[in-house]
Amino acid sequence: MEDITQLLQREIDQASTVQGTVITPPGAYQIGALFLKSNVHLIVSEDTILYGSQELADYPEVDNRVAGINMKWPAAMINVFHAENVMISGKGKLDGRGETWWQTFWGTDEVSGMMADYAKKGLRWAADYDCKRPRNILVYESQQVTIKDISSVQSGFWNTQITYSHHILIDGITIDNGKGPSTDGIDIDSCEEVTIQNAYISCNDDNISIKAGRGAEALAQQRSCRKITIKDCQLGYGSGIAIGSETSGGIEEIKIQKVVFEQTGAGFRIKSANNRGGFIRKVTASDLTMKDVGFPFLLQTNWYPDYSYPELPADYEEEIPDYWHKLMAQPAVPVGPAKVCDITIENVQATKTGQQSVRAFFIEASPAEPIRNLTLKNLFIHADEFGKIAGVENLRMVETIVTALAPTLNQNDVYER
């Protein structure tokens, strides 16, 4: 397969001098990392498939934030760095050929590989950071960026990541990923004024994730994620729309409207941990349709302890990278989980038609830091279990009907993604 990375990069560099457009040639080609410049419009033509190189060296390491930590990480297939007025569009396809990277993480049998090795050493929390994998699209420290209509599949890691950026439009894209580890659909991290609309997203982790960093570093940076709108989207396989678990910089003014969830593991999620701090506030989710969603409403402020509280085994003597220190560093003053307040969920139809087990509610917060001012209005839910609601101050349930005939079982208190 012909590699056209250098050809396209030359055209991009030339187009940036004249506010130009680059159109990919028809056919199937391989690329490594491409870097778009300000005032460039890249059109991935309908009859083009761009396959990601399977050599990690073709994705140079760049400054980035990965799962809440600033560190070096391989570039994506298509990158927008420190740029403005950029557009990526077209009906073509980006195929990251992610199986290579997935097998490195969890082996060909999905139970071995780096994750299993790290788990045996008591280092499960570090595997996601040490197993470096390319993404399909990355926007970093940029503004006025539009991503429209393209198709993204088989990303090695997150499909589309938007970090430290503002005034971003993601419109009409299709993400249909395989079952690789950490293949989130779209991750919005410490950004402002972002709209995601008319998208179809199916993946093997959060369909859409809204983040703001983790730990002492993010608390010091105080780069919040705010004014995010998600509307008119359809979500397939995956873990729904997640706010958190990286909350240290603060997340606010989130609007989720007219979204269809079909067979997602979870629907609307909030997740934090006892050392995250920050806040989640002023969130409205309305006009949601959920079909066979395992956990329609999953709000946990002490999410996934094995991942959230890293520490070295007592007998560990090897040298560790700087980002491990960041992960283990604790704030000078204990901060607790994110302060969650002013959450409104309204106009929801959640139905069960298949064999998948459905729990209407799984809401858990600490009595010391409860979720405050949670309004559930005009919900119709058909589930197996009612579930649990604990650690909520000022819960309002208005015009809500729940059908749940089975008893709530403690053994179903687990959802680790």
UniProtKB/TrEMBL annotation:
Q: Which InterPro entries match?
A: GH28_Enzymes, Glyco_hydro_28, PbH1, Pectin_lyas_fold, Pectin_lyase_fold/virulence
* Annotated signal sequence range: none
List, alphabetically, the Pfam families matched.
Answer: Glyco_hydro_28
The UniProt keywords, alphabetically, are:
Glycosidase, Hydrolase
> Quick check: keyword Hydrolase in the entry?
yes
Q: Does the keyword tRNA processing apply?
A: no
Give the family, as the similarity comment puts it: Belongs to the glycosyl hydrolase 28 family.
Record PANTHER family: PECTIN LYASE-RELATED, PLASMIN AND FIBRONECTIN-BINDING PROTEIN A
Full protein name: Polygalacturonase
> Origin organism of this chain?
Enterococcus innesii
Q: What is the organism lineage in this UniProt record?
A: Bacteria, Bacillati, Bacillota, Bacilli, Lactobacillales
